[in-house]
Each structure stands twice: as structure tokens, then as C-alpha cells.
Write a structure and sequence with these properties.
The chain has a two-stranded antiparallel ribbon with strand order 1-2. Strands 3-4 form a two-stranded antiparallel ribbon. The protein is flat. By secondary structure, the protein is mainly alpha-helical. A hairpin with a 3-residue loop joins strand 1 (about 5) and strand 2 (about 10). It is built from 6 helices and 4 strands.
Length: about 180
């Protein structure tokens, strides 16, 4: 598929869009020269170019398609017989056929709400206050205590800790 040329870079085939543009004469002069040089060396791209030229010639020599009179009548009757959907909400069509936005009168205009900072602070009511907040905090604290107990529980192989006398108070002891 690819040949190594020049500095060892593979040479790619022409893309289908490039072949069509080459046949239709839509390439710049530099691109046309490069494509022409490639087509002379590459049999695959030469065949693709030949088939594209054949397709172009067949389309150009084909007669114009015709539609039956009954089909044209039915297509022409669509605006009178078919019920078209209404315009989308908030849009209207002017007399000259342009879409325009319609401002709704049942909703207040932007910027007519309360002044910034005049409402209650976020968290002063709702989820973060009252009974739910206390329950959530209790669950978090319980989870932290249970995880701390799980990490500090001694293993069964470890020797038991020495008993501390009742009247030890604030005496610090060192163990060898």
C-alpha cells in the first residue's frame, strides 16, 4: 500500500476527496501537479481517477430526471392540505418571514428580582440547619469513632496492656 520514497517516509494514496477534486479541476496548480505526478506513479490512484472520470462523464451525459405530474401536484398541495406545527414557544414570524423572539409577559423581566444580598444567607434554612444537620453530624462523628476504634483495637496475639492504678493521677511512667 505504501512505498518508502526519498527520506524513508511512506507515500500515501490520494484520498477520495482529492481524486474527485483532481477530476473536477478544483485543485490549485501546485496540488494538481503533485496529484498528477502521484497518479503517474501509482496504479491504484490512476484506476481511482479513471473510474471517477467515467462516473463524471456518465452523470454529465445522463438526461435530467423527471417527476410524474401526480407527484408534482401532491408536492404542490402540501402547504394547503397539511397542518403545520405551530411556532415554538417564545418565537414568532414577522410579516417578512423572519424569526423573532417574543418576551413573555407572564414572567418578570430579567433583573426585576430582589436586590443582591437582600435574601437570607445560604444554609440558614433547609438542608444545613435543624434536625437533619444534627443527624448528619452525628452520623459523621459516629463513623469517625468507629473507624478509630477499628484501628486501635489490639490484635489477639499482642500481650494485654498493664493495668493502671486508680490513683495514678497525672504521673507519667516510662517503660523499658
Amino acid at each position: 500500500m505504501t512505498d518508502l520514497r526519498g527520506w524513508g517516509l511512506p507515500e500515501q494514496h490520494l484520498a477520495l476527496d482529492a481524486v474527485v477534486a483532481f477530476v473536477d479541476g478544483e485543485l490549485s496548480s501546485t496540488a494538481h501537479e503533485r496529484a498528477s505526478a502521484h497518479i503517474q506513479r501509482c496504479g491504484f490512484c490512476a484506476f481511482e481517477t479513471y473510474t471517477q472520470q467515467q462516473a463524471r462523464a456518465a452523470v454529465r451525459t445522463a438526461p435530467a430526471p423527471t417527476a410524474s405530474a401526480s407527484l408534482l401536484d401532491r408536492l404542490g398541495a402540501i402547504p394547503q392540505e397539511v397542518e403545520l406545527p405551530s411556532a415554538p414557544d417564545g418565537l414568532a414570524i414577522t410579516e417578512d418571514g423572519q424569526f423573532v423572539a417574543v418576551q413573555r409577559t407572564d414572567k418578570p423581566a430579567f433583573g426585576s428580582g430582589p436586590v443582591l444580598g437582600s435574601s437570607r444567607p445560604l444554609g440558614s434554612n433547609g438542608w444545613f440547619s435543624g434536625r437533619r444537620a444534627r443527624q448528619g453530624a452525628g452520623v459523621v462523628v459516629s463513623g469517625m469513632l468507629l473507624s478509630a476504634l477499628a484501628f486501635t483495637t489490639p490484635d489477639s496475639d499482642a500481650p494485654p496492656a498493664p493495668a493502671v492504678p486508680q490513683n495514678a493521677g497525672a504521673v507519667f511512667a516510662t517503660t523499658p
